[in-house]
Specification:
The protein has six helices and four strands; from the N terminus they run H-H-H-E-H-H-E-E-H-E. The chain is mostly helical and 230 residues long. It has a two-stranded antiparallel ribbon. The chain has a two-stranded antiparallel sheet with strand order 2-3.
Length: 230
């Protein structure tokens, strides 16, 4: 297997492990775990780890399908344009609705899983990295600072002997991260996700375009004129 194919699963696994370690550091008893599903199901650490890594391995399986299973068949003489794979995807969707053959439905399935496999592992990685950073910041804040409410809109932050006292700018970033965390996770998260998907779309187009060119160079000239997904 190509070593580059293993890069994203390894990165995701490392991010997941960092997320779990930082979660244990921040809330060893899971009482303050921010994941609503874990809190609602009253998971202990064993159930949490099993469910968490099962979801992660499912993301990796989707990525493996995208990276390994998908193969284009494109005659060498057929011109490939940067957006030609988009046209092919649209053609497969139309064919699947017009025809009821298993082959067309398999192509539609391949198109959907191909795109999902590309995006899901990258979005999951970014989410795990964000969660790990948040867990560490929350743990440092909880262990070294105390928040005293003075009025409806006024809070007093009392710091203990934190090492961040020597780094006032870093301390200010941490405090602002804590106070804006709920706003980011609840209000901004959907927009940040859509922005990430939009940016990743350009990399997806570039990836598929390069894969089509590589596949075309490996196909014999005697093939049919129409491109297809294996």
């Amino acid at each position: 297997m190509n070593k580059r194919v293993l890069a994203w699963p390894i990165c995701l696994f490392m991010a997941m492990t960092a997320d779990m370690l930082s979660t244990y550091y921040a809330t060893p008893d899971l009482k303050n775990e921010r994941n609503w599903f874990v809190s609602a199901m009253h998971f202990d650490w064993l159930m949490f780890l099993v469910a968490y890594y099962l979801i992660g391995f499912f993301d990796m399986a989707l990525y493996a399908y995208h990276a390994v299973k998908i193969r284009y068949r494109i005659p060498y003489h057929e011109t490939i344009k940067i957006f030609s794979f988009v046209k092919q995807h649209i053609k497969y969707v139309e064919t699947s609705f017009i025809l009821s053959s298993n082959k067309s439905l398999q192509k539609l399935f391949a198109v959907c899983i191909n795109a999902i496999g590309y995006f899901v592992i990258r979005l999951s990685f970014l989410g795990k990295v964000f969660a790990a950073i948040t867990n560490i910041i929350e743990a440092i804040f909880e262990k070294n600072y105390k928040v005293v409410k003075q009025s409806a809109d006024s809070y007093l932050i009392i710091g203990n002997n934190s090492f961040l006292k020597s780094f006032p700018k870093l301390e200010n970033i941490m405090i602002n991260w804590i106070f804006y965390e709920d706003l980011v996770e609840v209000d901004w998260y959907p927009y940040l996700t859509l922005t990430a998907i939009f940016v990743l779309s350009f990399f997806f187009i570039r990836f598929e375009y390069r894969r089509m060119l590589k596949s075309q160079q490996q196909q014999p000239v005697t093939q049919t004129r129409h491109a297809s997904l294996a």
